[in-house]
Design a protein that fits this description.
This protein has 276 residues and is mainly α. It is 58% helix and 3% strand. It has one domain. The chain contains nine helices and two strands. A two-stranded antiparallel sheet has the order 1-2. Helix 1 packs across helix 2 and helix 1 packs antiparallel against helix 5.
Length: 276
Amino acid sequence: MQLLALQFPAIDPIALQLGPISIKWYGLAYVAGLLLGWLYIKRLLSNDQLWAGGKAPLTPEVADDLFLFVAMGVVIGGRLGNVLLYDIAHYAKHPLEVLQIWKGGMAFHGGLAGVIVAAWLFGRWRRVKVDTVLDLVAAAVPFGLFFGRVANFINAEVVGRETTVPWAMAFPGYGPNPRHPSQLYEAALEGIALFLILRWLTHSKDALKRPGLTGSAFLVGYGVFRIACEFFKYDEYRGLLGSLPLTSGMAYCIPMVIAGVWLRRRALRATAAPAA
């Protein structure tokens, strides 16, 4: 039995209280991820050398409009995804709580679907290939993933299973036994590692010159990292699928990986990228 464990840094989930209005770290995480992603997209569009023909498909100013589309896709898709994929029985009994997004409860896979729809609508509006729009968004998504997982850690949610590793900690509400800080594993892999991989592809391998390549790398990378992290999560959150050694998170990621592999093959079959 492990006698010592790291002390959980009990941070107040409310970052700022302004009279009756409370601003939570969870909400700030989404704002930070969206804003940094927006700035990064503007930076990518300002570098013509990253794009086929030496010219970005959109001006950096157009990223302002894309930001609005993506923000709506994340919020609406993420909330509906949580309702439909993870807790539909609860929301069927309490339908008004679907609108209470300030209480938390967002699902990545729902947000992904929302962003894909938003990218398609934006592409149709601006007459830009949806693959190109999704490449831009995919390159910036790790910012939101990183801050979102840090917010999960602050809220002591999406905790890991019990363990004796030296960096384990006891989370409030889950008993005295130390657990994996699985939120930090995801922040490191889905946020930092995935961003570095995509950055290497866009800036060293001319990925943005082949529409769909960056987006496909995101789908595969996120899917693999998420599946790996699922092994460390608390069983009640993971939602084991009957007798199968799969969790709901794994099941939702497998189609992502398959789609990513297919999109990568399609992108590589396209015309070879010209020299920068």
